[in-house]
Amino acid sequence: MKTVKLIPGELHGEKIILILFDPNPVIHNHVLGLQGIKRRPYDGNLYLKYSATSVGILFHHLRKINCYVDYSELPPKPFEAPVKEKRLSLPATDPFHHEELKRFRRWLEEKRLSPHTVNTYVELTRFFIRYSILKKSKCYTKRLVESFNYEFIVCEGKSVSYQNQCINGIKKYLSFKNMDVGSLDLVRPKKEKKLPTILSKDEVRLLIEVIYNLKHKTLLALIYSGGLRIGEALNLKVSDIDSQRMLIHIKGGKGKKDRYTLLSQSFLTLLQEYYKHFKPKVYLFEGQNSKKYSTSSAQRVLRNAVVKAGIQKEVTLHTLRHSFATHLLENGTDIRYIQELLGHSSPKTTMIYTHVTENSIQNIGNPFDEL
């Protein structure tokens, strides 16, 4: 399958979409057949004048000749809020499909998928079913899925990750219905390769220092000092802290894998103070009625701390995990150990931190300085 890349550009003060592909007469002639296509004078590249609908038009036109369309470099804002009259109005699910989605949810739960994944697949599949009702489709075909992908995802400006989740959810749903998903051969967008936001050690220190609530301070310190995902931190039980070996036991992490990560001596002192004050019974961090502390509460804690600390970066709870890994790498820790601590299945995932560490970028001599 040939790839066509759409990238933003400018010509004579107007925004345009450049259409780039390896030399191919079939694609070239097909693109020229689209109304409004022009050639940029100084390099000969084909382009289309930018508008709220131009991406969707290009995508649909190129899919007719089975091209993979990479639009990941285009700015997301124009597609997040398309004009209202272009938005799809989907009908509600009927009683039959409502009950079927309940059975689908149980089927996913029986496969022991995480609650977050189950909710995501069910809700995205609900959109697909509502779309099929809108189109009065009597069966689920590849054409219907591709039409849903174009009209509901591409034209509505949904993200690449949203598109992949939709495809995953639909394939699970069709498997649930004992349909052959292999015959669909669904085209997936290329995953965006974005570098993670990293906080410096000073920023992490400041972020934790501005928090006066002991529980909130301990939670954020734990996520950073152990490189934990938020779900892993909130699932921790009191018994998972091994202060003798200075390790934290992560049970049932991503991919249902167990692992150990570091227990910081400085954090242990803070944790002991927290334990004496709050006396958690089962979960290390408990909300009301001794239940697990919620993700939304943890996110609110972080947002407030970021504002207090005056940090201008776009920070999420996962940023603390990214920062932990990057700081380990900057300290000279072997990347294989970092992979183990983070619970990554592949070293390729961990290698992203080599692109953001100060040691690998800021300390490289620029040849221009040596002229």
Can you offer a commentary on this structure?
One of its GO terms (biological process) is DNA recombination. By secondary structure, the chain is an alpha+beta fold. It has 3 domains: 3-75, Translation Initiation Factor Eif1, CATH 3.30.780; 95-184, DNA polymerase, domain 1, CATH 1.10.150; 201-361, Orthogonal Bundle (hpI Integrase, Chain A). Helices cover 47% and strands 9% of the residues. It contains 16 helices and 8 strands. Strands 3-4-2-1-5 form a 5-stranded mixed sheet, covered by helices on one side. The chain has a 3-stranded antiparallel sheet with strand order 6-7-8. A hairpin with a 6-residue loop joins strand 3 (38-39) and strand 4 (46-49). It starts with a strand and ends in a 10-residue tail after the last helix. Residues 77-86 have low confidence and may be disordered.
- Beta-strand percentage? 5-15%
The helix/strand class is: alpha+beta
- Low-pLDDT parts are 77-86
Classify the helix fraction into a percent range. 40-55%
Total of helices: 16
| CATH class category of the largest domain | Mainly Alpha
Q: Report the CATH topology name of the largest domain.
A: hpI Integrase, Chain A
Kindly state the number of beta strands. 8
Write down the overall mean pLDDT. Answer: 83
Pfam family, one: Phage_integrase
Domain Tyr recombinase: 194-366
Keywords: DNA recombination, DNA-binding
GO molecular function, one term: DNA binding
